[in-house]
């Protein structure tokens, strides 16, 4: 209950205070390349219920039909604005709306597309999907350079399925089994500190 209350208050304040920034970023995305400002994609949420996640669009329209689901290194599908948005995680800001409406939490396992959730071992699936997915979690911090790591693999998508995804799942399950409001707030500060370091 405390976690959900914190999510509602923090996401509502975030949307209110960042409204001018969100408008500027949306305009930048629209001017930078043809297409909508927002990108919507189906992800798997709490208890396996699908939902639509919202991000600022960082790739060309229909990019999913032009390459793999995962982003690898200097992906040619990424727009100029998208490069900056991704580097500083600004593309994730619209997910504050997903938190406010109850589909996500500020902190929780990152939501995956159904294709990858189908690969989850049953026990880990049960644990990881027992909570709302989040904007950040321990795996997000540990794999902040995931795209660059996958770019070095002979088969990036296979490397993600066989190596990265299992490690992320273990970390996500560990988070779920030990999480509390205090540790969530610490993770939020760590995430902001990491982003500030990039700046």
TrEMBL record:
GO molecular function: transferase activity
Annotated Pfam families: Bac_transf (PF02397)
Signal peptide: none
Entry keyword set: Transferase
Its EC number(s): 2.7.8.-
Residue intervals of the Bacterial sugar transferase domain: 3-194
PANTHER family according to UniProt: COLANIC BIOSYNTHESIS UDP-GLUCOSE LIPID CARRIER TRANSFERASE, QUINOVOSAMINEPHOSPHOTRANSFERAE-RELATED
UniProt family annotation: Belongs to the bacterial sugar transferase family.
Protein name in the entry: Sugar transferase
